[in-house]
Amino acid sequence: MQRKSICMIAGGLTEKNFRLQPWRYLSEVARQLANQGHTVTVLTDGGEGKPAQDMVAGVPVWRLPSVSAPLWTRNEPLRTALRATSPDIILWHVGLTSFLHQQLEGWSEAPVVGIFTSPVYRFGEIARLGARRVIGGYKLSAVHVLGTLLPKVRLRHILRHGVVRQLVVQSHATRERLLAHGVRPEQATVIVPGIDNIWSTFEVSRGTEMRAVLGFSSADTVVLYFGSPAPLRGLHSLIRAVKIARRTDPSIKLLVLSRRRADELMREDAELRRLLQEEDVSDYIKVVSAFLDETALVSHVAACDVAALPFEIIPSDAPLSLLEAQALGKPVVTTTVGCLGELVDRGPSYLAEPANPQSLANALLQAAVDLRAHNGGFTRPVARSWQQMGEEWSTLVEQMTQHTGAQHAFS
């Protein structure tokens, strides 16, 4: 293997969001390529004046005032930083809206690979959620609504003229959507994410103690939701679905692991506040509001029977929570949105219609029936590691640079 100089351009990379997609994928690409022997420099934003060196989860980064390259101006600090790194290849984090406003031409003779982490929706897929839900969840929905309305001419132009040589996506579902918009098959590569080893090696029986601490008995069928409780992630529909499912199976209970403080959550989300204050809800719903470290999070997931992550919109492709829950042998209930069905097809999984509590309730009931048929447990699928992902990325880097030589002529 020939060692390469790699520059990744990705805004928003901080310790705060390192565990969240798409930054987890981006940072692992950088880290794993470095582990493969390449020299990796990450350019991100959040700096002032001259580039400032920083570290994010072991990944060295340079912080610039901005890594955006708008069409109407030149980002000289970004150009200077790129010139200083003299990369053999540039990895640039892009989405559909990037092709509307980003200046991707004229940077270097080095090939540019776009890391495309955004799901690609059809307008009808978002519209069917209803205007009230979409507007209420605008923080998640706005960029995706815009993406459905944008013409894809510039995307095709950028790729067909070699400005961006390749797009790398995390799922075949997203690749198929890009092909439908005119991207050539040879210009769209799937490199799926991995997960941390703890999810594959954790002894599931250790979850019994945590289950007791949480107040659940062995007779309960504990459904787990973990992640942000923001609108359009499906928690509101899940609470309604659990209420419906309990009419048939009263053993079903819900544990919510929220990354928001309880007082903040109840103050800012009136709909969720009403749902959690309904009569008798405390008998079958428990909310834990905390930023859990990884070991604590795995213990909580291991303590439950079913993971329910019924996204109505996926903010970023390939939510890792689905893969993590399956690595513990947990059946997963999710929705037919985007790549979700693809992500969970290696283990026991149940797909519901998005934003449909009755469909979701039916999926929960079927999962509970199958759990009993399997005496409460399923075989754990073999999980993919971040190292395996890094090896695929290293192969791609070598393929993309073998014909480019060592010329790096920046404009």
Notes on the protein architecture:
With 411 residues, the protein is an alpha/beta fold. Helices cover 38% and strands 17% of the residues. It has 18 helices and 14 strands. The protein has an eight-stranded mixed beta sheet with strand order 3-4-2-1-5-6-7-8. It has a six-stranded parallel beta sheet with strand order 11-10-9-12-13-14, with helices on both faces. β5, α3 and β6 form a beta-alpha-beta unit.
List the helices and strands and how they pair.
Elements: E1 5-9, H1 23-35, E2 39-44, E3 52-56, E4 59-63, H2 76-85, E5 89-94, H3 98-101, E6 112-116, H4 123-127, H5 131-136, H6 138-149, H7 153-160, E7 166-169, H8 172-180, E8 188-190, H9 198-201, H10 207-214, E9 221-227, H11 235-245, E10 252-258, H12 262-268, H13 270-276, E11 285-289, H14 294-302, E12 306-308, H15 320-327, E13 332-335, H16 340-343, E14 349-352, H17 357-373, H18 386-401
